[in-house]
Design brief:
The chain is mainly alpha-helical. About 60% of the residues lie in helices and about 5% in strands. It contains 5 helices and 4 strands. The strands form 2 sheets. A two-stranded antiparallel ribbon has the order 1-2. Strands 3-4 form a two-stranded antiparallel ribbon. A hairpin with a 5-residue loop joins β1 and β2. The longest helix is centred in the last third of the chain and has 26 residues. The termini are far apart.
Length: about 180
């Protein structure tokens, strides 16, 4: 691979703008930049999940990290990268994970061990990125598959957290709606 970045700082963003892949510059507080940053944050959080996950989960997490780079590329260039096959893969992976889990009878609280807890944080970051994507979509039509991928990813991360807890033998924590009623 050729050297892409020989110098990390350019000083071109000192005015509050950032460069896009097509050469144009936009404000750093633009919704597009917000969502790209949130996708980057999600990808970083998934790195933490991968570091703490038991064997057998890291390959799927790394594949999702690659796809999140593709999400960022699509947002930056405006060229379609995320396709239905990406959504299908996520759905199939989610269904496969879910097969080994007991159906939920109650809501669960985020938790279930360190890796699962980080996975729940990733899920929450994913939902935030999705909300920003929806706001951006109102300004400029986005690829429906990209929107579906991010929506499905948060579902996947919820199920992944449950699967990790199960594999590690850590009980899920159920919401106790009645806990504080008498206080």
């Amino acid at each position: 691979m050729a050297n892409r970045l020989t110098k990390i700082y350019t000083r071109t963003g000192d005015d509050g703008s950032t460069g896009m892949a097509d050469g144009r510059r936009i404000a750093k507080d633009d919704l597009l930049v917000h969502v790209i940053g949130e996708v980057d944050e999600l990808n970083s959080q998934l790195a933490v999940v991968a570091c703490h996950s038991p064997p057998g989960f890291s390959a799927a997490i790394r594949a999702i990290q690659d796809e999140l780079f593709n999400v960022g590329a699509e947002l930056t260039t405006g060229k379609t990268v995320i396709r239905q096959k990406n959504v299908d893969w996520l759905e199939q992976s989610l269904d496969q994970l879910n097969l080994s889990l007991m159906p939920l009878q109650e809501f669960i609280l985020p938790g279930g061990g360190l890796a699962a807890s980080h996975c729940h944080v990733a899920r929450a970051v994913c939902r935030r990125a999705e909300r920003t994507l929806v706001s951006l979509h109102k300004e400029k039509a986005l690829n429906g598959c990209l929107m579906a991928y991010v929506n499905r990813l948060s579902d996947y991360l919820f199920v992944l957290a449950r699967a990790i807890s199960k594999q590690q033998g850590i009980d899920e924590v159920y919401w106790q709606s009645e806990r504080l009623k008498d206080c």
